Amino acid sequence: MSTTALLSLSTLTNFEFINCPITPVHFPSDLASNLRSFTCINSLKRLTGVWLSRLQNLTDLTVSGVAVNASGPAIILGSMKKLKSIAISHANLTGYLPKHWHSNLTHIDLSGNNLRGKIPSSITRLENLLLLNLSSNGLDGEIPTSIGDLLSLQNVSLASNSLSGSIPESMAAIPALVHLDLGSNQLNGTIPKFISGLKDLRYLNLEKNNFNGIMPFNASFLKRLVVFKIGGNTNLCYNSTLSPKVKLGIAPCDKHGLPLSPPPAKDSSGGGDSSGGENADDDDYSIGDDRNKNKQQAHGPSKVVLGVAIGLSSVVFLIIFCVLISKCCR
After folding, report:
1. Residue 133: pLDDT above 90?
2. What is d(CA 78, CA 102) in angstroms, rounded to the nearest whole number?
3. CA separation for the pair 281, 274 (Å, rounded)
4. Sign of dihedral through CA atoms 45, 43, 133, 231?
5. Among 12, 44, 294, 305, which lies 20 to 30 A Cα-Cα from 287?
6. How far apart, in whole angstroms, are the C-alpha atoms of residue 210 and residue 60?
7. Could you give the 3-state DSSP secondary structure of residue 42?
C-alpha cells in the first residue's frame, strides 16, 4: 500500500487488515491520530509494540494471529488512554502484565501468548471491566483476593496457566458472572460453595487442578449450566445424591467424604482380553452400567444349561429313533 494511498485515507476512524499478509506499512501521522478502531487478524506478517503504540487515540484494538515483538503489553498500552477494548491474542507476546491500567477498559483479552509472572492486583480496580481473558499463558502465583471488586465482570478465563492457591471468596460478590474458566492450573483447596449461588453462571470449568474434598454442587445447579468440567481432580469426589449416570470424571465419595477407590482390575492373565481396557475409558463410576453387566452375567449360565439340555434331548431322540428302526427291520 503506497504512502499516497494512505494519505488519502487520513480521515478514517476504523482500519481493518484481515488475512492480508503484507509487510507492515507506515501510517501517516494524521491517519494514526484519527483511528479509533484497529483490527489486524492474520495480517501484516509481524508487528512491533512501538508501531502499535503510535495509535494513541484508539478505543478498540484487536490483534490476533500475528507476531507482536514487544517487551510486554505495557509498551503498547501506555499511551492509549482512551482504550476500552484490547484483544492481543495468539501473538507470541512476551513479558509481564502491566501494573498500571487505564480505567476505561471494559474488555481485556491477552490469551494465547507467552506472558509470565503474577496477575497484578491493580487489574481489579477496573470497575467497568466485563471480560478478562488471560488464558494459555505462563502466569503463576495466586488469583488476586480483590478480584471480587470487579463487580461488572461477566466473563473471566484464567485457564491453562500455572496459577496456585484457592479460589478467592471475594468472587461471591460478582453478581453477573456468566463464564468462569479456571481449568488446567494448579489451584487447590476445597471448591467454595458460593459458586452455586452465582445465578447467571452458565459455563464453569474447574478441571485439571488439585481441588480436594466434596464437590459442593447439587443436581439443580448442574442442570442450569451449559458447560461443566471438573474432571482431573484426583482428590475430589461427588456426593452419592447425584445420579450415577452423570459423568463427571471424578470418583464418588465414601462415608468419610473421601474418593472411593476404583474397583480392582480384572485378571488379564488369560491373554488378549480387552474388556478391562474398555472399562478404564469410563469418565466415572456408573452403578447402572454395573447392574446391567451383572444381569448379563446372570443370563450366561442359563444359556449354557439350555444348550446342554437341547443336546441331551437330541441324543435321547436319536437312540429312540434307532431302536424303532431296528424293530421295523426285523
Report:
1. yes
2. 8
3. 12
4. negative
5. 305
6. 37
7. coil
Beta 131-133 vs 227-229: how paired, if at all?
unpaired
List, edge to edge, every strand of the sheet that includes 155-157. 14-18, 37-41, 60-64, 85-89, 107-109, 131-133, 155-157, 179-181, 203-205, 227-229
Q: How far apart are CA 123 and CA 98, in angstroms?
A: 9
**Residues 40, 59 contacting (CB under 8 angstroms):** no
* Type and span of the H or E element at 32: helix 29-34
Spatial neighbors of 17 by CB under 8 A, at least 6 apart, are: 39, 40, 41, 43, 44
pLDDT band at 132 (very low <50, low <70, confident <90, very high): very high
Which of 299 and 128 is assigned the larger pLDDT? 128
274, with CB counted inside 10 A (0-12, 13-18, 19+), is exposed
Burial readout 147-183 (b: 16 or more C-beta within 10 A, e: otherwise):
bbbbeebbbbbbbbbebbeebbebbbebeebebbbbb
8 A C-beta contact, residue 282 and residue 252: no
Mean pLDDT of 5-22: 78
- Tell me if residue 63 falls in helix, strand or coil: strand
Q: Among residues 75, 17, 10, which one has the least CA distance to residue 42?
A: 17
In a 3-state reduction of DSSP, which class is residue 106?
Answer: coil
